[in-house]
Amino acid sequence: MYVYPLRVQPLLDGYRDDWGVEANPSSLPTTTGYRARAQAGSTERYLYLYIEVDDAHFDPEPSNARPERDRFDRVDLWLQRPDGTREFYFFGTNAPGLIAARSIVNGGDGQKPRG
How far apart, in whole angstroms, are the C-alpha atoms of residue 7 and residue 33? Predict the structure, then answer.
């Protein structure tokens, strides 16, 4: 995925109109049957991801969510460092508004926990 250079830090409001990027988000492969698109941008210091998912029904994140077991609407992000170390994060919410990524604890082998 191409990372577009951003002139200013975008407002994290769910819209990309302040990114200054003319290109549309790229389609993502999914295993859920939902259409998804993403776009990446960066400033000198930060990487930003804009993600759209077509889903007419909202399943909110439960309080005290256990992502390895609970089912709710979320986006899972898997990252691999140059040394092979993997990190797993998820983005979920129980209501509209800003969201923050939360880490999913890895097993001792660096693999994503199984649910």
Answer: 35
